[in-house]
Write a structure and sequence with these properties.
With 114 residues, the protein is α/β, with parallel strands linked by helices. The chain has one domain. The chain is 59% helix and 14% strand. It contains 5 helices and 5 strands. The strands form 2 sheets. The chain has a 3-stranded parallel beta sheet with strand order 1-3-5. Helix 2 packs parallel to helix 3, helix 3 packs across helix 4 and helix 3 crosses helix 5. The protein is globular. The chain starts with a strand and ends with a helix. The mean pLDDT is 92.
Length: 114
C-alpha cells in the first residue's frame, strides 16, 4: 500500500505555529489527529516539510510529542517518513518527542510505585 503523503508546507503553511486555530483551519491538533488515525491503522505516512520556515515548540509538541506519548517511539519510527526536513525543524520535533517520552516514562514509574 502506498503511503499517504502530507505536504506540511502547503497544507499548514510556512509558519507552523499554532496548537489550535478557530474556524476549523488546519493546525497542529488537526495534524495530530490525522497522524493518530493512521498510526492506529498501522498505515505509513510520508511528511514533506518543504517550504516550512518556522515550526514552533507548541506545534511540534501538539503534532508529534503527543503522538510519541500516546504510541511510543517504535510506531513513529516505523510508520512516519520525514522528507525535506531542515535541521531546525528536526531539532524542534526531536525535542518535543523526547520530552513527551520522558513524561511517559515518569508516569509509568509513578504507577509502579503506587
Amino acid at each position: 500500500m502506498k503511503p499517504q503523503f502530507i505536504n506540511i508546507g502547503k497544507e499548514y503553511g510556512p509558519v507552523c505555529g499554532h496548537r489550535e486555530l478557530p474556524n476549523g483551519r488546519k493546525d497542529a491538533k488537526h495534524l495530530q489527529k490525522v497522524l493518530a488515525r493512521a498510526l492506529q491503522k498501522a498505515e505509513k505516512i510520508r511528511l514533506s516539510f518543504k517550504g516550512v520556515m518556522v515550526l514552533t515548540p507548541s506545534f511540534a509538541d501538539e503534532a508529534f510529542g503527543k503522538l510519541a506519548e500516546q504510541f511510543g517511539l517504535d510506531p513513529l519510527n516505523k510508520l512516519l517518513e520525514f522528507k525535506d526536513v531542515s535541521e531546525y525543524v528536526a531539532q524542534r520535533i526531536n525535542y518535543a518527542v523526547d520530552s513527551r517520552l520522558k513524561r511517559r516514562e515518569q508516569a509509568a514509574k509513578q504507577k509502579e510505585i503506587a
